[in-house]
Amino acid sequence: LAQAQAQRPCNLLQANQPATGQLERMSYETADSQKEEFRKYLEKNGIISQLTRVLVGLYEEPERPGNAIDYIKKYLGAPTGVDVEELRADNDELKRQNAELEQKVASLSQQLKELQTEQEGEDN
Predict the structure, then answer these.
(1) What's the whole-model pTM score?
(2) φ, ψ for residue 63 (rounded to 5)?
């Protein structure tokens, strides 16, 4: 009886757990469904057709380009040879200058209004 009770919790735990084969099958089904969702996403957004055209274009090139990545970027219309970090830094600097100039315009507009108000007061 003691042996049966000692084995019973193990049997209950094993009964609540799916078989190893079943876990693997569930894992494959999940991975397959995720792959299928991703494939549908790529197809819906035209990515598969774009990539196919790029690869066909690369295949049909009489001379293989030295840098296939640059070829693909150029084919897709992305700029090549551009330092993105430098552009971001320039953009940040221009945003800062723009903010300063906007503050200056606001300040000068306020000064102009004050001067116009003073001048109207003197004219009366």
Answers:
(1) 0.43
(2) -120, 130
